[in-house]
Amino acid sequence: MSIVIDNITHIYHRGTPLETVALSGVSLVVDRGEWVSVVGHTGSGKSTLAQHMNALLLPTEGHVSVDGVGVEENRARLREIRRKVGLVFQYPEQQIFEETVFEEIAFGPKNWGVPGDEIPERVTEALSLAGLGETFKELSPFHLSGGEKRRVAIASVLAVRPDYLVLDEPTAGLDASGKRELCDLLHGLKQKGTGIVHITHDLELAVSVSDRILVLTGGKSRLWGTPGVILEELTEREVPGLVMPPVPLFSGRLRELGMDVPVTWNAETLVGAIERCVGK
Amino acid sequence: MTEKVIVSFENVSYTYPGSGKFALKGINLEVIEGEWLAVLGANGSGKSTLARHFNALLVPTQGACLVGGSDTRTVEGQRFAREMAAIVFQNPENQIVAAIVEEDVAFGPENLGVPPEEIKRRVERALKETGLTDLAGKPTYALSGGQKQRLAVAGAIAMQPPCLVLDEATSMLDPSGRQELQQVLWRLHSEGMTLVSITHRMEEILRCDRCVVLNGGSIVWEGSPLVLFRDEDQRLGQWGLEIPPLVAVWKGLVESGIISGEAPPVLEEMVSALCP
Questions:
Q1: DSSP for A98-159?
Q2: How far is A116 from chain B (nearest CA, A)?
Q3: What Å distances lie between residue B181 and A10, B25, B166, B175, B184, CA to CA?
Q4: Structural domains in chain B plus CATH codes
Q5: Which has the minimum average pLDDT: A185-189, B119-123, B264-268?
Q6: Range list for CATH 3.40.50.300 in chain A
Q7: Cβ separation B252–A178 shorter than 8 A
């Protein structure tokens, strides 16, 4: 049971002066119960890739399938695919429009034809998964904090009970505690068997939460593997368009200047290594 | 030389209509001409509400906000505040109005009734300041996120406001876009512009002169970024803030006595301190 992206290319405005190759020969597999992060700079093709996962976009070349159902040859089943793969856009709280949290979360299941008597149960379940209590139901979503609004927006996708959740920059604009809470929520969903696809430009965060990471630059797949593999690769060679986070960058600079410290992402490890070097 | 106060909050409180609770409570704050002030705080702490008082997009429910000495509760004060302070918001897409880069920069001064020759001069200067000169004739849709946000800054500084307020202006940018914008701000600051950065990204305040922390609509701490990082790490968590990883390294080295803690926790300074 997985989303399989097989060697896809996506070209916007094909055959016009605005023709742009957004993705070129990208492959990726996301299993249920797995957290995959897609990391890259602005314009690297991350969001284009995300929109292929629930067939909002279809590949110009290559193949996409969800749980064995090919997107191209099963256009009659696109609805089923879109129910299986929930897509949370960037700043999803900007799309909130209902007067109460209940109505906001109920909107998705109603649209998918879930019987009316089942809706309250779906809303309660989604609220609980998103870490929001029953007391939120009757509140106006517009009076909630930024982090709470984002949880409501995610709950409204969870109410459709997707098997995979694709989130485009879900932590953008959230403060440190909001970010931590959201990652805990996604981790909990992963443990329950949901496949998580996390689109981000935050390499440090991706390394700390993901099972596997795909690094995209200029629409091409540059690196693919576990966080350990990605870290090793990045410390050995520069990846165009990807900014190395400050701690490994700092340790790399010290090494260049002759200090015997490891290239590390961990602040504590680096401080310990520098202390040893200077005899403290 | 006496310091000139450019914006003054005098016991300012603000309540959004219909909400029944204070978004800002009893704010007393003076912004000095030429300083780079950071306003820190978690989501919902009142940062953006405070930002919107600088150019009178909001006016206090209680207390007074004086911009350039003029009270924003008056019509004249509001008009003056909009000349004194420009705001750059978080989403660059929402701030671009023209199809071509240089036309977008010209939009603000045109609206202020600036003569065409002067507009041309200001556009050239603003594009140069933000490193966009080579992109002057480009369509705005073709810019990257970082370039769009630099364009928003160019549009703001073309109006020649004495004070530039950045409300989470880097939150939608990738790391290289954030670096680009930080470099532009550093340059503007070194040329004497008053900057107010509203953010919860602690790595962006390293070069600021002073920071204030908002919590629940009130100022709970005020001082230099260095002191904040060195002495207040326990309370940062309570305020919904977090020390960035490189600052954690700096703090560890200061506590071990390896570096003095006098220089800011920025990479180049730390490398020089360790390998002079």
A1: -SSHHHHHHHHHHHTT--GGGHHHHHHHHHHHTT--GGGTTS-GGGS-HHHHHHHHHHHHHT
A2: 32
A3: 30, 31, 11, 10, 5
A4: 5-243 (3.40.50.300)
A5: B264-268
A6: 31-57+76-242
A7: no
CB-defined contacts A:B, below 8 A: 103
Whether ipTM tops 0.85, in short, is: no
Please tell me which residue, A232 or B213, carries the higher pLDDT value.
Answer: B213
Smallest CA–CA distance from B276 into chain A, residue: A257
Q: Tell me which chain A residue has its CA closest to the CA of residue B45.
A: A145
Q: Does B270 touch chain A (CB under 8 A)?
A: yes
Within an 8 Å CB–CB cutoff, is residue A254 touching chain B?
yes
- Tell me the pLDDT tens digit for each residue of B78-106: 999 999 999 998 877 888 999 999 999 99
CB-based contact A247 B171, cutoff 8 Å: no
**pLDDT category, A32, cuts 50, 70, 90?**
very high
* Sequential DSSP letters for A190-228: HHTT-EEEEEES-HHHHHHH-SEEEEEETTEEEEEE-HH
Interface contact B43-A201, CB threshold 8 A: no
* CATH class of domain segment(s) A31-57+76-242: alpha beta
Model pLDDT, residue B268: 87
